[in-house]
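Deliverable D2.4 — example input (structure tokens):
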């Protein structure tokens, strides 16, 4: 992974280890683009890439107390990113396999197929939950998912910072994950989340 080290890395990591959010933002901004490019080559999905990058940095923040003892942060970042990406791909594959197995092993296959929501039904469920989001989060979600705008383009169009856009998107996805689960059965939940994030 061809990523340059951030200047004054050890000092910055020590500051983050002590809970310095400004230092963490600097770290995030420095590595975000390069890390996203690396992960996108594997996932070939902008939405999945954005989610994985966010998960990587959330994990770094959660483990911030250990950062001061890390001698090779790029290596640490590479391993964490690789693991998160493989987890994402594994879950997506397991979901598809589970779906096919459910259909193939049923003695009443047509009933199983009919009992699993269609893509159109998934879309309706998603849009219903999205309609419950605050106005700003709704607009960010719409511009990202439907109009395929990048975060900096959304920020420019809405007159807010790129970091605010990222925060709105993170909150919107968290809300979706939580509230969609209450509307469909467990088997359909995984399929819906794969559809939502990959298409």
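Example output (designed residues):
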């Amino acid at each position: 992974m061809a990523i340059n080290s951030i200047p004054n890395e050890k000092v910055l990591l020590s500051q983050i280890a002590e809970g310095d959010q400004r230092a963490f933002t600097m770290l995030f901004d420095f590595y975000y683009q390069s890390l996203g490019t690396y992960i996108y080559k594997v996932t070939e999905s902008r939405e999945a890439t954005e989610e994985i990058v966010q998960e990587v940095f959330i994990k770094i923040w959660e483990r911030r107390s250990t950062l001061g003892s890390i001698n090779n942060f790029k290596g640490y970042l590479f391993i964490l990113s690789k693991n998160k990406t493989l987890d994402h791909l594994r879950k997506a594959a397991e979901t598809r396999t589970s779906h096919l197995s459910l259909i193939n092993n049923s003695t009443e296959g047509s009933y199983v197929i009919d009992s699993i929501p269609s893509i159109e039904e998934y879309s309706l469920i998603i849009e219903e939950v999205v309609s419950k989001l605050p106005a700003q989060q709704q607009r960010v979600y719409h511009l990202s998912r439907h109009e395929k705008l990048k975060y900096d383009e959304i920020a420019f169009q809405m007159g807010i910072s790129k970091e605010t856009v990222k925060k709105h998107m993170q909150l919107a996805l968290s809300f979706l994950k939580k509230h969609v689960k209450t509307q469909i059965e467990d088997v359909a939940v995984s399929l819906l989340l794969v559809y939502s994030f990959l298409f």
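The mean pLDDT is 76.
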